[in-house]
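Can anyone check this?
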Amino acid sequence: MHHRERTSRRHFIALAGGAAFAGTVQLRPAKATPAMLASAIRNVVGEAPVRVGKVKLDIPPLVENGNTVPMTVSVESPMTEQDHVKSIHVFNEKNPQPNIGNFYLGPWAGRAQVATRIRLADSQKVVAIAQLADGSFWSASADVVVTLAACTEEG
């Protein structure tokens, strides 16, 4: 009978974790592309047409630091049971992930507005799309110039 060294819990978890993650590595481009932006939008709207209007995207056209870019999206809507904004989706053209955020609303929200800070990897287009209760999609877009990019890795 051979004497085996006991494996510590920490050592076992490290071994198991390494095995579990060995097959899950996904390679993605460092930047999104316009095609990735279009694909992300299609994942939300399907084949429905997206019309320009009703959505207001407030974002500075020039930002010094891409790490904290203030953004507000508002949609013209009475926010009643019959006529309200169901969701607001924000996309970008060049970040590693093209979908910045999804916000779900209803008549209880009172007003159709979301405000947050986002990260932008580079100068690019930002697109906001709102889905209304009638199933229609409306959009607005803005070009933002970033002088100091975010989402970069320095080695």
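Reply from J.R.: I decoded it. The longest helix spans residues 9-21.
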